[in-house]
């Protein structure tokens, strides 16, 4: 990943976020604009049906871990659950989820530390991934400069209610930050190299035993031995090693032992890196005001957030997340030539089940209902689905040495 240009020029307030879950509150916004507020019970009439929708509130739990624990308490499979969007672990979050085949009384009766159910109702359909308008954030910054109000006001004035819609670091892996690099190897047809990178890269690894196991495998390529030394929490890696222990040269088969959504994540991360590179370049060239380019369009809004399905004469610039079906303009062709890739690579000849035709994403995202409390150094704002609060906060916190670039 490359350094990314800022939209604002004024120096930020410094400090750090996510010192504790209480410093990072995320409240999901439903498609109709309803905010699933922290600590507030939601009452809806619901309808008789095989599904139960419920509002999950959690603190210091990942969404998948919370759902797994709830499934155990309900004596049902985790596969019976769905949710609109995954939420941070080191945060207090609310979100809509659904379960098939469980009663309202059972779900509301769940008692798990740092998990609460803020309402439940029957439904005919499950909650679909992406079925949310956005999220409202309340973020406290620790260790900021003294009297930060003036700096925040200056930056807010420069941003004019929006910020660059980069993909955040979370998109590229929680610690090792190599998800997009694995994706690049796969796009280039370097299946063995992609597998080795995923299994063996230890830079950024936070677990000592895992670090040693990865480094040892890089030296030996002994799959069976690695299966004994890789810690149990590396369950994805262990599933690949189990396959390779049986079929040592079947690298594509080993990758297919991963869930499809994990394989897709590699490709999506690479598309995200391309998007970030192009956006940063355009911010620098256009002095923070990039213009519509070939193959892009303006989209309108729904409830104050960009709506990619609404084509307008003016509005939010919708740029490309490049895939095999994406016509490339001169800027995009130049980047692909520099990187030595072809857009047809997204057809994924070695793993066609994760081919990606491409889509769109707005260059900027709105900072809706923005507010700053200088006494507690607390920011609050709402963002559309798919936009990152950490990316918005870098505009307000970073020193920006060297200006926009």
Can you tag this structure with a few keywords?
single chain, 405 residues, alpha+beta, Alpha-Beta Plaits, Hypothetical Protein Yqey, Chain: A, domain1, eight-stranded mixed β-sheet, four-stranded antiparallel β-sheet
Could you write a compact summary of the structure shown?
By secondary structure, the chain is α+β, with helices and mostly antiparallel strands. Among the domains are: 22-135, 2-Layer Sandwich (Alpha-Beta Plaits); 172-261, Hypothetical Protein Yqey, Chain: A, domain1. It has helices at residues 63-74, 104-108, 149-159, 179-187, 191-200, 208-220, 223-229, 235-246, 251-256, 260-285, 330-339, 389-397; strands at 24-29, 51-59, 81-83, 92-100, 115-123, 134-140, 162-164, 297-302, 305-312, 316-322, 358-362, 364-366, 368-373, 378-384.
What can you tell me about this protein's structure?
The chain is built from twelve helices and 14 strands. It has 405 residues and is an alpha+beta fold. Among the domains are: 22-135, Alpha-Beta Plaits; 172-261, Orthogonal Bundle (Hypothetical Protein Yqey, Chain: A, domain1), CATH 1.10.1510.30. Strand 8 (297-302) and strand 9 (305-312) form a beta hairpin. Helix 4 packs antiparallel against helix 5. It is globular, with a radius of gyration of 22 Å.
């Amino acid at each position: 990943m490359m350094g990314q240009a800022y939209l604002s020029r004024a120096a930020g307030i410094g400090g750090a976020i996510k010192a504790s879950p209480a410093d990072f509150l995320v409240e999901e916004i439903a498609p109709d604009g309803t905010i699933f507020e922290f600590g507030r019970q939601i009452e809806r009439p619901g309808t008789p049906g095989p599904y139960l929708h419920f509002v999950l509130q959690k603190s210091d739990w990942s969404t998948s871990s919370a759902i797994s624990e709830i499934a155990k308490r309900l004596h049902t499979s985790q596969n019976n659950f769905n949710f609109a969007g995954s939420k941070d672990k080191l945060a207090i979050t609310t979100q809509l989820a659904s379960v098939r085949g469980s009663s309202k009384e059972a779900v509301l009766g769940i008692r798990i530390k740092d998990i609460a159910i803020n309402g439940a109702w029957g439904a005919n359909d499950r909650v679909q991934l992406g079925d949310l308008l956005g999220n409202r954030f309340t973020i406290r910054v620790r260790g900021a400069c003294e009297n930060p109000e003036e700096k925040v006001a200056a930056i807010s004035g420069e941003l004019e209610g929006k910020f660059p819609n980069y993909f955040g670091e979370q998109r590229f892996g929680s610690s090792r930050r190599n998800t997009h690099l694995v994706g690049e190897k796969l796009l280039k047809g370097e299946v063995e190299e992609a597998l080795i990178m995923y299994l063996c890269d230890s830079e950024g690894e936070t677990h000592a035993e895992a670090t040693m196991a990865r480094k040892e495998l890089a030296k030996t390529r002994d799959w069976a031995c690695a299966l004994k030394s890789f810690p149990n929490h590396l369950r994805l890696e262990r599933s690949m090693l189990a396959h390779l222990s049986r079929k040592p040269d079947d690298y594509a088969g080993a990758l297919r032992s991963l869930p499809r959504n994990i394989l897709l994540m590699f490709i999506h991360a690479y598309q995200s890196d391309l998007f970030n590179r192009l956006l940063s370049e355009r911010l620098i060239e256009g002095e923070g005001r990039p213009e519509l380019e070939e193959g892009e369009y303006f989209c309108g809004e729904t409830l104050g957030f960009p709506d990619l399905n609404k084509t307008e004469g003016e509005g939010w610039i919708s740029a490309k997340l490049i895939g095999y079906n994406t016509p490339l303009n001169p800027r995009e062709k130049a980047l692909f030539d520099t990187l030595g890739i072809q857009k047809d690579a997204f057809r994924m000849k070695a793993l066609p089940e994760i081919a990606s035709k491409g889509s769109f994403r707005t260059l900027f995202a709105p900072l809706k209902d923005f507010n700053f409390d200088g006494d507690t150094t607390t920011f609050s704002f709402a963002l559309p689905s798919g936009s990152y609060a950490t990316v918005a906060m870098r505009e307000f916190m970073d020193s920006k040495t060297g200006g926009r670039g």
